[in-house]
Design brief:
The chain has about 350 residues and is mainly α. The chain is built from 16 helices and no strands. Pfam families: HTH_18.
């Protein structure tokens, strides 16, 4: 069993090194640079974990020598969470506080020898992977309904969800162990599961031209002009999809379907009398949008910009416009408007007023 364990760990390390080597070439990828950097950091952490969690190291090497490896291994937990967010959140960006969270977790794990007699310290260290595994699952489940990229919905959920399940199983096994280490059988299962997950992820990461990860499945169109809140549908090949695209354009244009507060993809599909998967395909492939909420808010903000710039509506409160275009309250409207234009609605209206005078 020891030879099998060593062989699996060697294969895992070799595959992770290959992943790092390939990802380094994508370091400055125009769309996915943060995903690449998190992926590299996660792969390096898993390399350290594969070596630090081997039965020989855990049982034969002193705590002081193990502690740096334990810290880096524990740091894989927040990196998994960040990886899940980078995969599923369009526009995700790494922030300085992400690095501080990772550093804090690494220091916690690396200081294990200082508080080894303190039982709550072990409880805290076991809680860290659970917390970040749950956060990773939230990153998968949260945007699931509004994600329009079909391949991402099907494939990435399996991979990232599997990663969270792996983390939870490993924590459970370590909690059951009297000294927190893995027996030979559990260690073999650990490396086998990790190798399977790595093969699945590597198969995608090592394909730079794979649709849905490195390249956009459809280029996002420019935002609609203020006087045209609903963009015309792009040509689609399927006749039924063309009919649905026309119906969608009428409903979201003349019918102002986007102005319904709390509009969901399922609700819109029901209004159009179409299966949800077909509507998702039309909005993604025909109109180039990757997220349903972003698509709807783009239409809402287009009308809001037009009305804020209209001298005839200058006396109308901003809140009234926000509610009328479909936002539930002024806060989300202000945040979305500023993210879109770089200005608050009031500043935008003032500039439009100055331009007219």
């Amino acid at each position: 069993m020891a030879l099998i364990d060593a062989a699996l760990r060697g294969a895992l390390v070799a595959l992770l090194v290959l992943v790092v080597a390939v990802l380094l070439r994508q370091w400055r990828h125009p769309r996915h640079a943060d995903l690449v950097r998190v992926g590299i950091a996660l792969a390096v952490s898993l390399i350290v974990q594969a070596m630090a969690a081997s039965p020989w190291v855990e049982h034969e090497v002193s705590c002081a020598v193990q502690s740096p490896g334990i810290g880096v291994s524990l740091g894989a937990a927040p990196l998994f969470w960040l990886f899940a967010r980078a995969v599923f959140e369009d526009g995700f960006r790494l922030r300085a506080w992400h690095g501080l969270v990772w550093a804090g977790v690494v220091l916690l794990g690396a200081s294990i020898c200082l508080w080894s007699p303190w039982r709550p310290g072990y409880v805290l260290m076991r809680a860290v992977p659970i917390v970040f595994a749950l956060l990773g699952l939230a990153a998968v489940v949260g945007p699931w309904r509004v994600d329009l990229v079909e391949k991402r919905r099907r494939w990435r959920g399996v991979v990232v969800g599997g990663g969270a399940a792996y983390a939870l199983v490993m924590v459970a096994l370590r909690i059951r162990s009297p000294d927190g280490s893995l027996g030979s059988g559990a260690a073999l299962g650990d490396v086998a599961m990790l190798l399977v997950l790595t093969v699945l992820i590597a198969g995608r990461l090592l394909a730079p031209r794979a649709q849905g990860l490195w390249e956009d499945e459809a280029a996002a169109p420019p935002l609609p002009a203020p006087d045209m809140p609903a963009p015309p549908p792009a040509p689609v090949e399927d006749a039924s999809d063309r009919a649905l695209a026309d119906a969608l354009a009428r409903h979201m244009g003349e019918g102002r379907g986007y102005a319904q507060e709390g509009l969901t993809l399922a609700g819109l599909a029901a209004q159009l009398g179409a299966p949800e998967y077909r509507l998702r395909r039309v909005i993604n492939r025909g109109l180039g949008h990757r997220n349903f909420n972003a698509y709807v808010n783009g239409l809402r903000l287009a009308e809001a910009r037009r009305r804020l710039a209209d001298p005839a509506e200058r006396a109308l409160p901003v809140l009234s416009i926000a509610l009328d275009v479909g936002f539930g309250s002024i806060g989300p409207f202000n945040r979305a408007f500023k993210a879109e234009t770089g200005l608050t609605p009031t500043e935008f209206r003032q500039r439009a007023s100055l331009a007219d005078s």
